[in-house]
Amino acid sequence: xxxxxxxxxxxxxxxxxxxxxxxxxxxxxxxxxxxxxxxxxxxxxxxxxxxxxxxxxxxxxxxxxxxxxxxxxxxxxxxxxxxxxxxxxxxxxxxxxxxxxxxxxxxxxxxxxxxxxxxxxxxxxxxxxxxxxxxxxxxxxxxxxxxxxxxxxxxxxxxxxxxxxxxxxxxxxxxxxxxxxxxxxxxxxxxxxxxxxxxxxxxxxxxxxxxxxxxxxxxxxxxxx
Length: 225
Hints:
Rossmann fold, alpha/beta
């Protein structure tokens, strides 16, 4: 079995049950701007950068001042209405602690903005276990482009073969494939095995991965020292 030295972590849908909340915040922000978008259409794009999501569901191009206003409003709605209601998935902290105990170094690669990422990691109960954090603010291009994943890789000072990512969306997977990094997929974000084809393994959630850790691709690890 291949030995990894580091794990790159997605947050939304992977550590925290927040994908529906992000979609609802987008729908509300679009509505305030006079654009009606379907929840289902937005929901299937959560995990993709907001600049790429917007033109997929509306006539907003994702980069102009009008789009940036909607993006800012979405962030405010998410933090005010939804962030206080969120919960971590079962087994998250226990899994991350187990990975640290095996000598693996942990970094986050999230499409969230920096001011959202800290509170989300607090919800996950994972802030003290994470060595490095990269967010949408650290990347020129958002997922499914590889920039955020590559930024996390650089923060750990490792090469692609030494790393594996834990994610929940096909956009995480595409970013990993473009970065040359393997990925373990979790169904907790709402995607199924067909959407996550190309992952080295797929589990229901963090709790199942923890239960099956010894037989998983993370079953053996070398010390990062």
